[in-house]
Amino acid sequence: MARQQRKPSTGFLTKLDSQWISGIVLVVVLVAGILLVTFNRKPDTAGPTNTDQDSNAATSVSVQLPKTPVSVSTEQLRQEGDQVIAELLAQYPSAAAPRKIAARYAQDTRRFSEAGSHWQEVLKFEPQSLEAHAALAGLAIKNGQPQEAVDRLLPRLRPQSPHPQVYLQIIRGLQQAGQLDRAGQISAAAIEAFPQDSDLLQAAAEVNTQSGALEVAKEQFQKALELNPSNPSIHFRLAGVYRRLGMNELADEHQEKSKSLRPEVEVGEEAFELEYDRSLRDIVSVAMARSADYYFDQNDGASAEKLALRAASIYPQGVVAYQVLSRVYYGQGQYANAVVVHKRLTEIEPANPVNFVNLSKLAFMAGDAATGRSALLTARQMAPDSALVASALAAYHLENGSFQEARSMAEESIRLKPTVTAYRVLSAACAKLSDVEGQKAAESAALQLMKSISSNTDPQAD
Questions:
Q1: Cβ–Cβ < 8 Å for 277, 74
Q2: What are phi and psi of 56, to 5 degrees?
Q3: How far apart are CA 172 and CA 138, in angstroms?
Q4: Given this model, what pLDDT does residue 5 score?
Q5: Helix (H, G, I), strand (E, B), or coil: what is residue 181?
Q6: What are the distances in angstroms from CA 290 to CA 84, 203, 295, 321?
């Protein structure tokens, strides 16, 4: 019997979901950008869907996460990764998403011809897929055919609905084809559309470096570093710009930083094998996690959990496997298990405040108020100017009866970035404070923003 398919979604990690219960708003703030970028699905607010569980599932812990990588040879690892992809394609031969997973896996394992074939298959299901066209353009550039890449993407460049990868591959193609003036024009438009995209800033800076506009290039590299300070390539290229500008001390500083972030592998077969094994584990783990996420979308929670756990055992220091596993447990109502998984994420990425926001709400749902409050306050310390964190704190204050603090934090969140969730919290707080006018204004603003989102006039507002 065919499975009933779950509506495609970004999952709980990418949604601000408000549930109104007995007149009290319970705001579930659970967001993670990595899954939104990685799996690119539409929001799903359905929440837990598995009702065949015992009553203790939400608060009991059964998951045991790996601490060290499982022992497996590189050859076995590659075969296992290939098998997972083959089984996914065999089980879902008429869907685009499995082909995308297969294409990314083939690219990551440097099987570019195979990747190209998968992307072509994607286009049979989704002829207008910008992701597929951008990937094929990237492969053309890699094969020394930059004009083919430009010709493929330029007709698909739509300023009203821009795509960062389309911009990026056009810039690279034009640069490689020697069309620097056109590359400069496109990169300027790209940065205007995506001012916080470090890859586009770096690409624009490289074009300006090649064109001799060194001061502009310097500023763009500096901005890219603010957004992505651990990228060794940006440090290395900025060092070159500083050198050409005669700023040798800064050049030396960034060159050393580049080396420290990307140290040279020691000569020797053992060192090479260790690095190759680590990279392959990362690649296979991500492919497995992506596959697990897709199985979960098809209501196959058992396969999703099993595969995500295997992905984590292969590469315990990776994040994608735990993100997917957390989503699975959340969707099954196993909140305590989701808390365990998200604690691991905070250990792997201790500087990411979103992890602590997610941990906070999961902990509250699992009945662990102490962990929830501690995680939320940690997120606030880490990101005092985050609209997401402010919104989560507003909800926390509202749920705990601190209505004035809730209103203040909701207003701060809206000032940083208006969202439906923040307006709803503000409305509820105003109601508790007998501020009828404030309540009506917040409800009206929430309604207008919802209409804006549904008509795609403001896709950035959640």
A1: yes
A2: -95, 5
A3: 9
A4: 41
A5: helix
A6: 11, 28, 9, 8
> Residue 14 has what pLDDT?
31
- What pLDDT was estimated at residue 274? 61
The H or E element that residue 31 is part of is strand 24-31
Q: Is the pLDDT of residue 50 over 80?
A: no
With a threshold of 0.85, does the pTM exceed it? no
Read off the tokens for 143. 């094969």
* pLDDT the model gives residue 23: 26
**CA separation (Å) from 459 to 42, 161, 310, 454?**
11, 10, 35, 9
Q: Residue 268, Cβ neighbours under 10 Å: how many?
A: 9
Percentages helix, strand, coil for the chain (3-state, rounded to 5) are 70, 5, 30
- Contact indicator for 183, 171 with CB cutoff of 8 Å: yes
Backbone angles phi, psi at 305, to 5 degrees: -65, -45
Give the torsion through C-alpha atoms of 328, 332, 337, 342, to 10 deg.
40
Encoded amino acid at 91, one letter: Q
Each residue's pLDDT tens digit, 271-306: 545 678 889 999 999 999 999 999 999 999 999 999
DSSP 8: P
DSSP code string of 247-309: -HHHHHHHHHHHHHHSPPPPSSHHHHHHHHHHHHHHHHHHHHHHHHHHHHHTT-HHHHHHHHH
C-alpha distance across the termini of the chain, in Å: 37
| HSE-up of residue 380 (Cα within 13 Å, Cβ side) | 16
Closest CA relative to residue 165, chosen from 115, 116, 142, 131: 131
| Arithmetic mean of pLDDT, 229-248 | 94
Q: Mean pLDDT, the chain, as a whole number? A: 84
For residue 202, is pLDDT > 90?
Answer: yes
| Gyration radius (Cα) of the chain, Å | 24
Residues 358 and 33 sit within 8 Å (Cβ to Cβ): no
DSSP 64-84: ---SSPPP--HHHHHHHHHHH
Nearest CA among 162, 217, 152, 207 for reference residue 185? 207
24 SS3 class? strand
pLDDT tens for residues 3-39? 444 433 333 333 323 322 222 223 333 333 322 222 2
